[in-house]
Structure formats: C-alpha cells, structure tokens
Amino acid sequence: MATAVENFTEQVHDNLGINRLGIWLFFGSEVFLFGAVISTRYYMLGSKTPDEVNQVLGLVLTALLLISSLTAYAAEAAAPAGRRSLMRWSIIATIVLGLGFLSGAGLEWYEAFEHFPHTTAYGTILFTTTGLHAFHLLTGLIMLNMSRNPNRFTTESHWGVEGVVKYWHFVDIAWVFIYPTLYLIQ
Amino acid sequence: MSAEKFAKVMRTGYGAIIVLAEMTIVEFVIAITTDGGVLYRLLTVIAIAKAWIIFDYFMHITHLWRPEH
C-alpha cells in the first residue's frame, strides 16, 4: 500500500510545472553569482580594456556557443517528436561545439597568462569570470553526455533532456553578458 | 508532436539563431567603431535583447505561466 508520502513524492516528481519552476529558481540564484563577477569588472576597471584582448577569439567563442544553442534546441524539440536519432546527434553536436568552446577558452587562458598575469586587475577578473563560466560549461557537457541515450526518454516524458538543454541555454545567456564585458567595452 | 508542428518549432529555432547572429555582428561592429558612454548603453541594450530572445524562444520562459503540455 502506498503511503501518503509516497503518493505525494510521486505526484511532485511527475509534475513538470514544479520541475520547470525549480530550474528557473536555480537560474535566478545563478544570476546573482554571474552578476557579482561581472559587476566586479566595472567596479575595478570601469570601461578600461587592455589592447591585447583577442577580440576575434571572443567572437569565435560566441559563435560556437550560439550555434550550440541551436543544436541543443533541436535535441529538445526532437525528444517529444520521437525523433530519437536527431535527438542523439543534436546532443553529440552540442557536446562537440561545447568542447570547441572549451578549447578556445584554453587558448584564451594561454594568451592571457602572457599578457594579463593573475596579479593584475584585468587578469584576476578574466580568469575568475571565464573560469566560472567554463566550469558551468563543463558541468553542462557532463550532463549532456548523460542525456544522449534516447532510450531513456519517451515522447511524453523527457524532462531530463529539457532540463539539461535549459541549463545549456542559461550558460549561453551568461556568455551573452560576459562577452561584451571582457572583450568589447572600451 | 506532429511532423508539421516539429517543422514549425525548428523554423522558430532557425529564425531565433539568425537574429542572434545578426545582433552579435552588429554588437561587434559597434564595439570597434564606437566608444564612451554610448557604447555602454548600446552594448547593454543588445545584450538584454539577445538574452530575452534566448529566454523566450529557446528556454520557453513563458511556459512557466501557461498550462502544462
């Protein structure tokens, strides 16, 4: 016989609305985290950006992340449509693009160690902000990898894919604000 | 989800990504041609607009206050 607690737990777990509200509350808390590091840049440096900043690399990283948002979106759309192969390959494409972004971030760090040591204000801000973002991206990649098996989802129940794709889009939004903050403001 | 609805959803995604790409190019061009307070304001407006497109079209924030489907 199912207890009231078990019934309630089952109800809550099946409630898509609660899942969605929960992840949006999580995003709200993340906004404070990214907001703090982004505002630190303006507090410490104002609009000053060193000339050595690689603006082209910043643009390429932005393009990679934007394209990965489309592939993630395709995976989320494919799940309820029962297009298992598309879902799987869209997630794999998103992972590849995410790895491309991480490689670019690695190149950025390689250049940054030379031009902006961590003892400088801009170096501190650059390593903190991009490091925080790259860590979020890495966790997104791990979760995407865990979700790439389409047999774990049905056309009716695919919150796992929806949740991880939403998280991926949030990481993209964080970059939408980090990109002008670190590369474009002058 | 029907094939027709799926095609419509994907068209929405393609439209959103094209607008985001255009805004990113505009943002880049503005940044290398402008400076000062105007640049701050323009980049802020563009970043907020890009974020809202992702919130709305990719993350479906409006589903929070719509009936579940």
Which properties best describe this structure?
heterodimer, A: 186 residues, mainly alpha, Four Helix Bundle (Hemerythrin (Met), subunit A), 6 helices, elongated, B: 69 residues, 2 helices
What report would you give on this structure?
The complex is a heterodimer of chains A (186) and B (69). The longest helix of chain A has 32 residues, at 84-115. Helices cover 81% and strands 0% of the residues of chain A. Chain A has one domain (4-184): Four Helix Bundle (Hemerythrin (Met), subunit A), CATH 1.20.120. Chain A is mainly α and 186 residues long. Chain A is elongated, with a radius of gyration of 19 Å. Chain A contains six helices and no strands. In chain A, α3 (55-81) packs antiparallel against α4. Chain B is mainly alpha-helical and 69 residues long. Chain B has one domain (3-65). Helix content of chain B is 77%, strand content 0%. Chain B has helices at 3-33, 37-58. In chain B, α1 packs antiparallel against α2. The radius of gyration of chain B is 16 Å and the shape is elongated. Chain B starts with a helix and ends in an 11-residue tail after the last helix. The mean pLDDT of chain B is 88.
